Amino acid sequence: MLVVIWRDQSAGYATLSTSLHTQDLSLTLPGLMEGRIDFAIAVAKADQLPNEIAFEPLTELLSEPMAREGHPLLGATDWSQMAEARWVLNLAAGSSAQQLIDWLEAQGVSISQRVVKCDSPTLMVELMRRTDLIGFGPRFFVDDPLSGHGLACFGTLATFPAYTIGLLKLRGVPLHPGAERLAILFRRHISALNLSRRPSSQ
């Protein structure tokens, strides 16, 4: 999707200077409020954001545990079977992984003492591919044949509640034309996606 958006953006603004970043929401929010970031696409809950930030929901996003193909626990049918597994997760405040831990603990399943903490998506993916560590992330990442190469989702577990992914910007402040065009492209492409369900074969 990002490639399509980038091509559309470049077609109309060949000389436009654009900066793309990936970072935790805890770093994104100050950037938005200080004017260093025009807008962000992120998983968020409107009632947990500062009043200065406007959140525009775009679609629902399914996240699931993922691990290397052939992982011995891939056939698990109950989350309690995952309690003794080793995990690699980004446990930043408000992260999807932290919400997973909270959700599991509410059901009497604790994995917090068996986590390798990692804030690098690249390192997490490599550890998932090459070891028995289990990660957690968007289902579409594994379903894509390039990004998901060598990985598989735990498709027989009950699904974790879907997140809302949307566009964040400073409330009441219009985007400059180049950023507004890019935001329109993100709105159009993300809103058209169905990211909240498993493939029909699951």
UniProtKB/TrEMBL annotation:
Entry-linked InterPro entries: HTH-type_LysR_regulators, LysR_subst-bd
Protein name (Swiss-Prot/TrEMBL): LysR substrate-binding domain-containing protein
Specify the species. Halomonas alkalicola
PANTHER family, alphabetically?
Answer: HTH-TYPE TRANSCRIPTIONAL REGULATOR YBHD (PTHR30419), LYSR FAMILY TRANSCRIPTIONAL REGULATOR (PTHR30419:SF30)
Known SUPFAM superfamilies for this protein? Periplasmic binding protein-like II
Outline the extent of the LysR substrate-binding domain: 13-189
Task: Note the superkingdom of the native organism.
Answer: Bacteria
Q: Which Gene3D superfamilies match?
A: Periplasmic binding protein-like II
One matching Pfam family: LysR_substrate
